[in-house]
Every structure is written in structure tokens, then in C-alpha cells.
Amino acid sequence: MTGLLTEVAELRETPQRRRLYDYDEAAAELRVHPKWLKNRIKTLPHTKAGRLVLFTDDDLDRILALLHVEPESAPTVRVPGGSSPSRLTPLPGRRTG
Fold first, then answer.
1. Beta strands 52-56 and 20-21, pairing class
2. Could you read off the pLDDT of 54-63 as tens digits, one per residue?
């Protein structure tokens, strides 16, 4: 138990600074345009002090999680007697005019 108390005491003695990002810095970290963040600010986690909008590392991680997309894994369907790619013929061109 004393080991845990020692760790807690050390954490209190050495406060960790949290990095704060403005729009431009956060956009650079996320590799998006700052305007993208500004247009979606109501739906994104952030810290606001008056008009000042800031993002923490946790906010950026949560934004990335919101943007993460898992590919759909649809089963491959084989049609009996279906054409192989080598037997496919192109469709006739569209008529214009």
C-alpha cells in the first residue's frame, strides 16, 4: 500500500502539463483544414474559454475515434455458372446528342 501512496505523492510533486492546441495546431495534428474543424465545432469535443477554442490531446484522440471507419466485411458471393473476368465483354458506349 505504501508503494501506491508514494506513486501518488510523486505525481502530485511533478504536475504534468497538458498540451493545448488552437484550431491551426489541432488541424495540423489531424491533417485536416482548420475550416473543417470550425465548421464542425458543435459536434466535436473541445475546451472553450469565452471565444477561445482549444483542443487537448484527449480531444484529438476522441475526434480521431469519431472519424474512424471500419470496412464492411461482406461475404463473397459466387454465382454458379457466372462469368469469369476473362469472359466479360464491355457494354456499348452511351449515345450522346
1. antiparallel
2. 999 999 999 9
